[in-house]
Request: fold
Amino acid sequence: MRARFLFSLAVLMAASPAEAKEVLRGPVEAEVVRVVDGDTLAVRAEIWLGQTIEVDVRLAGIDAPELKGKCPQEREGAARARDYLARLNDGGAVRLTNIKRDKFGGRVIANVSNDATPDFSAALRARGLARGYDGAKRGSWCELAGGSGARG
Reply:
């Protein structure tokens, strides 16, 4: 069952944009290869015996500041979000659920958890390191720097 599910994940990643609304419920166990930024992890999951897939996973429902942001406050917030995400993961295994293809291709969007943290996105939001995101145009983190921007 798990192998079939992981194979389906690989097929979903190769799907056309018209099929992008498909969702694989999971869970899929994965190993974090690296923390890309405050809302993205690179993971490796076994899709078949001896066959693995490595993919970037954007955390569902959030937007974190960008490491190459437009102002110093955004870049500092991005570093705090990335570092906190690394601490949440602590280099171990994660579970992916509600997996779907990202609109930009080449990565997926998923809910991410581990034994210590049931929802990575919620943890980042609770710390003020990310904000809610539904796929629409994102606002500026620089405009929020003096008010309710990324804090940690």
About this structure: Residues 1-18, 147-152 have pLDDT under 50 and may be disordered. The chain has one domain: 2-132. The helical segments are 2-13, 72-89, 120-126. The domain at 2-132 is CATH 2.40.50.90 (OB fold (Dihydrolipoamide Acetyltransferase, E2P)).
